[in-house]
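Quick one: structure tokens for this chain, please?
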Amino acid sequence: MTDSTTKVREHYSAMGLTGRIKSALATIVPDGQPLTVDELAPLDQFHIRGMLATSELASAAGVEPSTQVLDIGCGIGGPARSLPAIFGCNVTAIDLSPAFIDAANYLTSRCGLSSRITFQVGNALHLPFEDSVFDVLFLQHVAMSIQDRGTLYREAARGLRPGGRFAHLRLGYSAGRCRVSRSLGTRCFDQLSGERARYARFTGTSGILSTSLAR
């Protein structure tokens, strides 16, 4: 494991996270009582525009019930739970932090979605999967924590089936204002030209489709 990966894992380590989540939720919903994705949305969507951005990105990437999705850097699982709840698809989700994965499994069980989502500890630079497994790869505000972009992009391309879509949400700046960008298409990437060129160079792909997700 690289030094940068170790630092990221340590940064996002959280001792007793699931217990703290249980205690916080108990003040709102008794432990054991089912939760809904909508109830958790204000608490578990750690990216700009929350569940709305996840839904828009998934729609643009063509997610449907038969789609196999990999969510890279899933955190405590907010977006991963949104996808089957909204689109009826199956999701595999990975994160470097064991504490996040434990909390994600707990919350997903409370939402009754454990049969649709598989959470596991995993590294975006060494995806623990065979080649060509997924139809869509999700990456939302995660690349900023990954120094080795070349390996990230190659692993993303390796995990996608032919014609798969790499849906990436990140912030960009244009004309002095913030914008949220998305990218999707056959093994495509970021709206920003520098990132787009790097992805094409590292994976040997082109035909990138990019649009603005929000204004």
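The domain at 3-214 is CATH 3.40.50.150 (Rossmann fold).
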